[in-house]
């Protein structure tokens, strides 16, 4: 289940879009929230980092800052699917600097909206099925990738640090590759970090919001810095 977020300066248009998107998406939607400004949308997304949402976003928002808002959304919620909305041709080139599933032109046709929703649904379904399978003495469990903060290696054991706690199993970092994606980067011989969950980094370490610190080895620093900067710029 996921939410539909609609951010458009025209409230009547947002209400119409809400009604039509709900009719198309049906049971997949947990709720719909409307926003009229960039700050309100970003504040909500920041407070719900574990969500994967379908986000309708006006390109011309606050003088063209809809594209910047889209970058922010993907930084905080990488699995969200953006559907840009535009009444003009002004920002068409800039839109393609941000990963999105569709660009709706106002006034949109119902068939175009249906295509946009279906594309977003497909990607959301793929995203919510991305899980890391852990087998240990307690049994087998699946952990959604977006909930994993980092992996820590201790001899033959790997500790999976998640938003809910720590799960341990026996294994090697090299065996993880088929199950993880590009957001997980090795920054140290003993650590693989989900860079979408860290708050900041410096020359020596990653810092998380709760105060945890993960070291960055010199041999990994240049690659890690480049990847993290790309992520912050919305190019990851």
Automatic annotation (TrEMBL):
UniProt protein name: Stage 0 sporulation protein A homolog
Q: Which InterPro entries match?
A: CheY-like_superfamily, LytR-like, LytTR_DNA-bd_dom, Sig_transdc_resp-reg_receiver
Taxonomic lineage is: Bacteria, Bacillati, Bacillota, Clostridia, Peptostreptococcales
The protein's job, in short, is: May play the central regulatory role in sporulation. It may be an element of the effector pathway responsible for the activation of sporulation genes in response to nutritional stress. Spo0A may act in concert with spo0H (a sigma factor) to control the expression of some genes that are critical to the sporulation process.
UniProt xrefs under Pfam families: LytTR, Response_reg
- Tell me the ranges covered by the HTH LytTR-type domain, including all copies: 132-230
Residue ranges constituting the Response regulatory domain according to the UniProt record: 3-121
Query: A GO molecular-function term, please?
Result: DNA binding
